[in-house]
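Lay summary

Proteins are chains of building blocks that fold into shapes. Our project writes down both the chain and a compact code for its shape. Here are two examples, one after the other.
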Amino acid sequence: MRKFVLDTHTHTVASGHAYGTVTEMAKAASEAGLELLAVTDHAPKLPGGPHEMYFRNFKVIDKEMFGVKILMGAELNIIDYQGTVDLEEGLLKKMDICIASLHTVCLSPGTRSENTETILKAMENPYVRIIGHPDDGRFAIDYEAMVRGAKEQGVLIEINNSSLVSGACRLNSASNLREILRICEKCGQEVIVNTDSHFPSSVGQFREARALLEETGFPEELIVNTETERFLKYLKR
């Protein structure tokens, strides 16, 4: 499997429970041999997350640091069963990249039907490009419906490395990710592998996710991490 050259889900001190600066994360990305890093701090509804003003001033941040292209965006919280996210459209328009994720502190898990409809509705938001860590078994989801919805909307499904590391808080992630990968392969749905890094040393470290992809024999052509231009073109769709 070819080298992964981008990591598009990472957090800085602005998220409130992460511990590196933008500069430190960019330096770590360079040292890991990445070409592109996206900083996607949690949106405001997650406890400890930054005020919306944080997301309004990304223009001051260098677009390249240590030889790495820098994208600035957000991990949006899905806050109701209608798929609503916690930043307004005017801000979303200015983002380089937006991930939408379910977090139990922002939305209590519903029924399998409710959770699935929530994800499908979030995908309809034209600014959402990635569904973050859908493997968390605390939110039961119809993965077949999720993958088909992602393919229809042109949204990437995330394979989240942090879900697979020792001590991860998400439920049944390994088995859920195997099922997600099986359905993505069947449907020809592209995935993106991310670290969900909350500290510089984990930026660009995909060991557990890569092992799972190799174990399942997932097709490399459905993984967007191997070509920066391919990913940037995807964002412009």
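And here is the second example, written the same way.
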Amino acid sequence: MSKRKTTTTRAAKSRSDERPKRGRVAAAVAAVSGDPLGLLCTDEESQEDRPTDRQMEIYAFIRDKIHSRGFGPTVREIGQAFKIRSPNGVVCHLKALERKGLITRGKNMSRAIELVNEPARLRGLQMAGWVAAGTLRAADEQLERIDFETLFNRDNHFVLKVMGDSMVDAQIADGDWVVIQKKQTAHAGDIVVAQTEDGEATLKYWFPERDRIRLQPANASMKPIYVRNAKVLGVLVGVVRKT
């Protein structure tokens, strides 16, 4: 009987000794995985109904980015802001926030993070009214808000930043952002992003001619570009300028 008690006591002691070892192993795994600061969320944290302090900090960061620039941060941006070296660590927090009903995430879209508790009426910019470009007219105050995201299909559009002044006569200046709809064809006179035989992409008017393609700049001081072959990558649908 004494021998059995001794064996049982040793087994219990072995199990108790194992608990702190698991903590040390978890810390070692965090260090090896590129998270020496221990910022990876744990299984225990992820199962709680209430968000952790770290998760709320990340939520506040996401909310600030969405309100200040119109779209959420990438996994990399969140990792840099909170010194989380492992992308999996960031994704773990995002999954927790999503599971706890604070955010939603679009599939296969790095910035498609939306705030669940943000009223739709607060999205976008306030519509302040109309302003005359000809005769004077009062700019009546409006309560409507304009969400420019709804003007463009995100899955079928992309944005490029303009470099150079070859399209200034079309009111597209250096530093502007152009919204491009993905297309492989265009009508004569469309402003397109065209890729030449050399693999260079350029923003120009598209004019197919008999045995060549004329890529026409919108700048009286510049000559057109003539190429034998070029393909359309997309057609201009919007210009954004911050002044």
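What can we say about the second shape? The domain at 152-240 is CATH 2.10.109.10 (Umud Fragment, subunit A).
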